[in-house]
Amino acid sequence: MKVVASAPEGLEHYLAEEISNLGGFNINTYKRFINFECEFDTFYRIHFYSKLAFRFYREIASFDCYDKQSLKNGVRDSFDWLNWLHYEKTFNVQVTGRTSSLSHTHFTALEVKNSITDLQKAAWNKRSNISLDNPDFIIHLHLNNNKGILSLQSSVESLHKRGYRPAVGNAPLKENLASGLINMTKWNGKVPLIDIMCGSGTFLIEAINQFLEVPINIDQVYLFENWFDFRKDIYLIEKNKAKNKIINYAKLPKVIGCEINKKVYEQAKVNISLAGLENYIELINNNFLQLESKYKPGLILCNPPYGKKLGNENELIYLYEQIGIFLKNNFSGWEFWLLSGNPKLTKYLKMKSSLKIPISNGGIDCRWIKYIIR
Ligand SMILES: C[S@@+](CC[C@H](N)C(=O)[O-])C[C@H]1O[C@@H](n2cnc3c(N)ncnc32)[C@H](O)[C@@H]1O
Asked: Is residue 309 scored above 70 in pLDDT?
């Protein structure tokens, strides 16, 4: 199969590495997506083990496309719709990109839909209904350089939603972004991990799931189950392997989350227990200033408020000063990773960074900054 995977900007290379480790090959990396090839078993497996992808799309056809007529013919002739899309199945069409005469994605999507339903009507005198919320198929058309590429989306929901976070705190990180940031720290699971402002617990849950290679989204219903060449036998083998995977939680070092806000702390507790990690993450409802440093040096993470979504910039100056002073006084020898969305505030830490990685967090231009605490 030829597959496209979308990812948060800045994580494309990490996604490529992840997919390669899971069995994907011929991988190419672009801005916010990668493409690759894989066999059926890998395709099913990546849904359970990719921690970084938003979505997977399987390429099914491509054709020359400049205008309405070439679009209509291209869609009609480039794929075996009648075998794949029975009129009892629902679908919707999504379009990205443009050509000079196909510049309205909504109009283009309607043309794609008509081309498919015309075929169905000619064959059966009946056509599929369109479903926006709960379709059996999601068909994508990407237009670029007078080419149309058709693909099928493999899940309705984005895969960054793992089901453990019905309750979100203030300004939570997307799960796949958190996982990617952890990946960049190269945390090896051998030293303690502390999130001093853990919010809904995303960093800690993702760090453990990544380190122990915990499968995710196993019980979802996937759109690929409706595909004509769905290999249920192979899928069930992969699903059962994931379900029965033995996870050695005993390997984990000390993992601590600290959250000052009682309500957010309670939500984090729910999330952590839904992720099955209540015995492996110590959650503290307090100001981080009360944290004790009684472990061997490890990693401290922090996604503080930075005045864009949460908190007023001036009030936050004091908070950043406190973080810097507290860490230098109590956690010398530890590594500190800060997700900064505001360089003016970061200065008030009065710490010298050793690495700064640009990252986009929900459209905010951020830096993932590494410090060695001295
Ligand atoms: C941007 S949010 C963190 C979001 C988190 N990464 C997530 O994915 O849910 C910042 C969190 O820091 C908490 N916080 C602010 N000041 C704190 C302090 N002094 N000690 C501990 N937590 C604090 C806030 O209540 C808020 O939940």
From this structure: no
Helix (H, G, I), strand (E, B) or coil at 115: helix
Residue nearest atom 17 in ligand 1 by C-alpha distance: 260
Copy the structure tokens of residue 366.
């951020």
Q: What is the mean pLDDT of the chain?
A: 95
- All CATH 3.40.50.150 domain ranges in the chain, comma separated: 175-212+247-372
Nearest CA to ligand 1 atom 19: 287
Ligand 1 neighbourhood includes 180 CB (under 6 angstroms): no
Q: Compute the distance from residue 45 Cα to the ligand 1 centre, in Å.
A: 34
Between the CA of 82 and the centroid of ligand 1 the distance, in Å, is 52
- Closest by Cα among 363, 181, 173, 154 to 271: 173
The CATH code belonging to domain 2-153 is 3.30.2130.30
| Mutation choice for ligand 1 from 162, 170, 281, CB with most ligand atoms inside 8 A | 170
Ligand 1 atom closest to residue 305's alpha carbon, by position in its atom list:
1
Q: Token digits for 114?
A: 């008509």
How far is residue 62 from each of residues 5, 79, 142, 145, measured CA to CA in Å? 17, 9, 9, 12
Structure-token match 């494309």, residue found? 12
Rounded Cα distance between 138 and 49, Å, is: 22
pLDDT at 167 > cutoff 80 = no
Please tell me the CATH code under which domain 175-212+247-372 is placed.
Answer: 3.40.50.150
Within a 10 A sphere around the Cβ of 194, how many other Cβ atoms? 26
